[in-house]
Amino acid sequence: MAFSTTMLAWGVIEYGKSMGSELSHALEAIQWSTDYFLKATVTTGVVYAQVGDPDADHNCWERPEDMDTLRTVYAVSKEAPGSEVSAEIAAAMAAASMVFKTFGDKEYSKVLLKRAIKVFQFADKYRGSYNDSIGSGVCPFYCDYSGYQDELLWAAAWLQKATKSSVYLNYVIYNMYTFKPQIEPSILEFGWDAKHAGISVLVSKFVFVNSSLKASTPFLSYADNFVCSILPKSPTRTLEFTPGGLIFKSGMCNMQHTTAISFLLLAYTRYLKNSDHVIRCNNMIISQNHLILFIKSQVDYILGDNPLKMSYMVGYGSKYPERIHHRGSSLPSIVEHPQKIDCKEGTPYFLSGSPNQNLLTGAVVGGPGVDDSFADDRFDSVQSEPTTYVNAPLVGLLAYFKSRSSKL
């Protein structure tokens, strides 16, 4: 949730003026999250990280209105720290503070930034992973596999962007080296669990206008290596693609990688625009237009330009997933079925081969397999489950291409 909020806010910061009438919806979604984060961090020295027993919740197929599973509360504290979740919440509030400073509610912006600073200080002072503190509450569903160090740097980078204070920039520069053993092995990764490449891209905008930092810091080199690891024709590419051209990583919900990586590439491309920096993948020079066309190809694939001619956004186009792995979408609505549907009473709807009864318009699912195939099967959560961290980066991407087509 925190990463989704950070990414949605980043999209509004960069492309909010291109969102038109949808801007108000983006602001509403961000504030829904940040109101929650303010409540979750109101007690000094405590961050409420999660509500609900994940095993109990996953065991039931029922509507949110009918949920009666335990609302177990999991918190991190000074004695049981969780730097990754605390720092990501700090990053989300810092990013959101910039959104509301630009688009209307300056007082709310100040509240968010003040709390972001406080929560970051807590995350940094009491270091540790919520894997250890919360345990079964987060694992195996939401384990942190990449360490908490990247979230500390990510949060500091956002606080530098929001406050323009050199304190946070110095923190990122110093700890980029201090945390090198934890950071460098995953420096090409970006997503809800790994912020590594995002740190370099976020800081690169500041590096481009401060020439003394170009040679003395690794951010541009790391960001360039990230680009070179992705592009299909790059001699140093490490990423896999489907035959139809979609970014593919094995595991849960591949589309999370497509949208997050594409957003990060777009942000870096935009930051490059006013600099003389040149990306070189060995002897291959990567132009900004080359990057834009690649990013657009990923967005176009999601929306239907793919071997199956299927949009992976529910409700968009003439062909899209109809059996998504989503309880509220697959079960009858309260209007249609006012009686309670208990934990296991929803199972027949889960197992049914019929299309979902309620259209979750705009949701993007996990997407096709490595061979571009897609079963449209509710049981296959890897391919058919939508998530907020897939949609959040896509909002910024769509806003950009809506107003600018393929131009910078």
**Rg on CA atoms, Å:** 21 Å
End-to-end distance, in Å? 30 Å
Percentage of residues in DSSP E strands: 5-15%
* Spatial strand arrangement across the major sheet: 1-2
For this structure, the quaternary state is single chain
H/E series: HHEHEHHHHHHHHHEEHEEHHHHH
Low-confidence stretches: none
Structural class: mainly alpha
Largest sheet: 2 strands, antiparallel
Number of helices: 18
Task: Outline the structure in words.
The protein is globular, with a radius of gyration of 21 Å. Strand 3 and strand 4 form a beta hairpin. It is built from 18 helices and six strands. The model has no long low-confidence stretch (mean pLDDT 96). It is mainly alpha-helical and 408 residues long. The chain has a two-stranded antiparallel sheet. The protein has a two-stranded antiparallel ribbon with strand order 3-4. It has a two-stranded antiparallel sheet with strand order 5-6. Helix 1 packs parallel to helix 4 and helix 4 packs parallel to helix 7. The protein starts with a helix and ends with a helix.
